[in-house]
Amino acid sequence: MSSIFNLDNPFFSGLNKIVDAFFLSIIFLITCIPIITIGPALTALYYATAKSLRRDRGYISKEYFKAFKLNFLQGLVSGLILIAASSILAIDWRYAKNLHNTTGVILFSIFTALFIVLFFITIYIFPVLSRFKTKTLHLFKTAFFMSMRHLPSTILMAIIVIFFGLLVYLFRIPIVFAPALCTLLVSFLMERIFKKYMPEKSEEEESNGVDEWYME
């Protein structure tokens, strides 16, 4: 009987994860209300999800705002670049769609392909920013390289993101938990990819007591 009310049993652990996902999603939604801050917000969402929600390291709010502040400027710039690129592509895509000739079909196909590539880059860029220190141009190159090199995982992550996007679009209410839950599912694939790019630890690093939670 006592095991039923044990806070470490699967039921209470799962319930706790749901509450944490709700809390993390609300923080994310609040911090990306200005829209232009969506870059640092997505970076912090991935970091807090991978570290706290998935691996129970640290407090969710503390880890979220730590990553938000640390990556604010680069996340802001990266987010604005993606928003601008998406807006330009959307205009070109609509223009090509309205051209009822061979040129229109060719341009429509090109812009659609570019949209897909940009979407793939967007999936990777903020998780990469949350984990690796690099310049903005190299950040975009890395996101593109990883998305193409691990294309099957990229497609699966894209399906996950689209599913939750449609869920929120159709029913609205899931927005209070969808950001964290979607990121959590993506992290299982993303972390497996990231491990391939992690440098091996030296003896000195192994003895310094640093919590390398991302290697688990």
Automatic annotation (TrEMBL):
It comes from the Bacteria. Keywords: Membrane, Monooxygenase, Oxidoreductase, Transmembrane, Transmembrane helix. The chain crosses the membrane at residues 22-49, 70-93, 105-129, 150-170, 176-194. It holds the Pfam family DUF624. GO terms for molecular function: monooxygenase activity. InterPro entries: DUF624. This is Beta-carotene 15,15'-monooxygenase. The lineage of its organism: Bacteria, Bacillati, Bacillota, Clostridia, Lachnospirales.
